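=== RUN LOG ===
request id: a7f3
mode: sequence -> structure
chains: 1
length: 295
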Amino acid sequence: MINAALLAFLTSLLTTWAMRACAPRLNAIAERDPYVVTHLAPTPLLGGIGVFAGLSSGLASQFSPEAAAFLVVLLPLSFLGFAKDSYAKNLGPLPQIVVEILAGAAIVAWIFGPAFALTWIGAACTIFIAGFVNATNFLDVSDGLAGSVSAFVCLSLAIAAHLNALPLLSLHAIVLACAIAGFLVWNRPKASIFMGDTGSFMIGGAVAVMVLQAWRDGVPILVLLLICAVPLGELALTTVMRLATGRSPFRGDSSHLSLRLLSQGASQWSILALYMGATATTCLLGFAVLYSWHL
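=== RESULT ===
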C-alpha cells in the first residue's frame, strides 16, 4: 500500500507540473473570473489529469479487476470535465446533467446490479452521485479548497473501510488521497494550476463510488454522510442561496460561502483552515458513530 500511495503522489506531482505547460495548447485556461476576487490572471486547468494519472498508476501497481473497473467507470465523468475545460467551455447545464445522470446510473448498476439501479433507492443513489460530483465542483472556487477537503474525506473513508475490514476500498481511498496531495503541491494558494472540471468531476465521482461501496459493504450510512458533510453542505447552501435570490442553481455566481468570505477580506489560507476544521469535525463525529456502532 505504501508503494502504491507514493507512486500515486509522485505521478500526480509530475503530471500536474507537465499539465501547466500543456493546458494552454489545449485551450484549457481559466480566464479572469469576476466572481472570484483572487482569480485575477489566466490560470491553466487540467490539474485533474494529474490526479487521474496518479490514481491510475497507484492502482496499477496493486492491480485487481476491481481497481480496473473503478477507473473505467470514472472515465465518462472525466471526459465530460475535460470537454468543459477545453473545447466545450460553453456547454450548458442540461447536457452536463444528462451525462452525470447516465454515468451515475451505470455506476449504480455496476456496484449493486442492474435490477437495483431501476428501484427508487437505486435512483436515489444515482442522484447522489450526480449531486456529489457537483458538490466537489462547487468547492473548487478557492485555491486548494476542493482538493484538501476531498483528500481529507478520502483518508476518512480509508479509515472507516479499514475498521470495517474492507482493505480494497481502503487502498483505493488512500491512493486517491495521495494523488490529490501531489496535485495540491501546485494548487495551494497562490495556485499555479487548477484541477478544472476534469478534476472535480472525476474526484467527486470517485468519492461517491467509494461511499456507495462502503454502504453496500456495511458501513452505516450516517457515518458516511458525516464524513461527506462539508461537500454536501456546500452543495445545499449554494443551491438554497441561488434559489432564494431567483437564480438558477446550475449557473455559476458568487453565492458560494468561500467566495463571500473572500469578498469580505478573508484570505484563502484562512478559508482553507476553516473548511478543513469543519471537515475534521464532521469526520470525527462519523468515527464516534462508527465506534458506538461496533460496541
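=== NOTES ===
Residues 2-294 form one domain.
The chain has one domain: 2-294.
=== END ===
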